[in-house]
Prior knowledge:
By secondary structure, the chain is α/β, with parallel strands linked by helices. 37% of the residues lie in helices and 25% in strands. The chain contains eight helices and eight strands. Strands 1, 2, 3, 4, 5, 6, 7 and 8 form an eight-stranded mixed β-sheet that branches. The protein starts with a helix and ends with a strand.
Amino acid sequence: MIQRIVEAVNLRPAEEILEVGCGSGVLDRWLARHTTQANRIIGVDVNRYLLREGTTLAMQEGLADIITFQEGDAEALPFPDNHVSVALSFTVLEEGNADRMLAELVRVAKPGGRVAVMVRALDIPWVVNVPLRPEVKTKAQTPRGFVGAQGCADASLYRRFHQAGLTNVQMWPQFAAFEQPGKPQAQFSHAAILGALTAEETHEWHAGMAQAVADGTYFIAQPFHCAVGTK
């Protein structure tokens, strides 16, 4: 999913990239490798522990000269206007004031720079490829996840991009598919689904999971909304 967004951004060598809400910098390290270290990257997050982890991991992977980390609030970024060529934010606009965060991304982007955002899509059902009765399948596929009172986790992302004054706006939903039930993201999804099921439905879920895994047909696909625009 991230690679498709990066392709839409049309990165050029030497352009500086900002990721807001970088966590431990896993996507920043991927970006550094994906761009063959041709772009300087700044990762911003409010979590000091994760920023320390990100700095350590970047050093361990020989990327400390490419990636720098800085503490900052997505609603009040610690940068001047027109500061970076590309401003990115992935699954962050759900957490606070989405319009304020988007305005900050636009503010720090240079004229001609690009802004790219991905949010979870709570307005699109999950696809759960597990054999279940229809009523249980409906429960399992109901979108879920936290979104703040002023956050964005739906197709309003596209309207917000236009209202922010961005041009050449590209918009699309896409799914992240998890095909290995033991992976952390799959386990997170399972826990969210099980929280909505009764004891009887939980038994049916485990039986269906076992069958899907045995048949090699198991996957869960979670939807996201993506948008890229030019300042």
